[in-house]
């Protein structure tokens, strides 16, 4: 039986999982690394306090949060199944605060202030993902056709996001779906 799965002989259909609030979710996909790693890290004892302190397995000591070169979002390292993984701190904090709701489709984790290192409960919220119009999707497709499969230059994707009134992560998600 998968890690954290509910053992119920009366349940028919997809495997059910239960988060730490007792919410059951069929849409939780353990095959998605972000879902599985956050879930397993929580089960192993990693936590984010309401004040935004990330605690690990070593006697409750705070875990170091750092910014990787690829992303503006802070990450931390976690060991799962003998392997080391990097996880985005705000995504894990959202799981700690909101459970499986943070994995719901068309939901994104948002910062309420511009401080990306503040992963406290007062600075992390869930919001519906931006619903794009066909014109916005066409504009994103045109933008990435001009870069011809290469990465967009620094700041150009952010400028497009600002122009369309959506987050950079929304632009990147649309690009990933179109590719």
Architecture overview:
With 179 residues, this protein is of the alpha+beta class. The chain folds into 2 domains: 112 residues, Alpha-Beta Complex (Homing Intron 3 (I-Ppo) Encoded Endonuclease, Chain A), CATH 3.90.75; 45 residues. It is 31% helix and 18% strand. It has 5 helices and 9 strands. It has a 3-stranded antiparallel β-sheet with strand order 5-6-7. A two-stranded antiparallel ribbon has the order 1-2. Strands 3-4 form a two-stranded antiparallel ribbon. β1 and β2 form a beta hairpin. The chain is globular and about 50 Å long. The two termini are 35 Å apart.
Helix content: 25-40%
The gross shape turns out to be: globular
Number of helices: 5
DSSP strand tally: 9
By CATH, the architecture of the largest domain is named Alpha-Beta Complex
Distance between the termini: 35 Å
Structural class: alpha+beta
Note the topology:
Elements: E1 17-18, E2 24-25, H1 33-44, E3 47-48, E4 54-55, E5 66-67, E6 74-80, E7 83-88, H2 89-98, E8 107-111, E9 124-128, H3 134-146, H4 156-164, H5 168-178
Antiparallel strand pairs: 1-2, 3-4, 5-6, 6-7, 8-9
Task: Give a quick set of tags describing it.
two-stranded antiparallel sheet; single chain; 9 strands; alpha+beta; disordered N terminus; 5 helices; globular; 3-stranded antiparallel beta sheet; 179 residues; Homing Intron 3 (I-Ppo) Encoded Endonuclease, Chain A
């Amino acid at each position: 039986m998968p890690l954290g799965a509910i053992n119920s002989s009366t349940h028919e259909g997809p495997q059910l999982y239960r988060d730490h609030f007792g919410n059951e979710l069929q849409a939780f996909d353990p095959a998605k690394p972000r879902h599985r790693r956050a879930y397993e890290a929580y089960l192993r004892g990693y936590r984010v306090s309401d004040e935004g302190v990330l605690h690990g397995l070593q006697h409750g000591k705070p875990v170091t949060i750092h910014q990787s070169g690829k992303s503006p979002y802070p990450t931390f390292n976690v060991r799962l199944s003998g392997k080391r993984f990097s996880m985005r701190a705000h995504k894990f904090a959202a799981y700690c605060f909101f459970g499986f709701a943070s994995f719901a489709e068309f939901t994104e984790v948002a910062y309420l202030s511009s401080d990306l290192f503040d992963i406290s409960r007062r600075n992390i919220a869930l919001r519906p993902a931006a619903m794009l119009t066909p014109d916005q999707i066409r504009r994103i497709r045109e933008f990435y056709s001009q870069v011809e499969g290469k990465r967009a230059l620094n700041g150009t994707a952010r400028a497009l996001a600002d122009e369309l009134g959506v987050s950079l992560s929304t632009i990147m998600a649309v690009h990933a779906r179109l590719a």
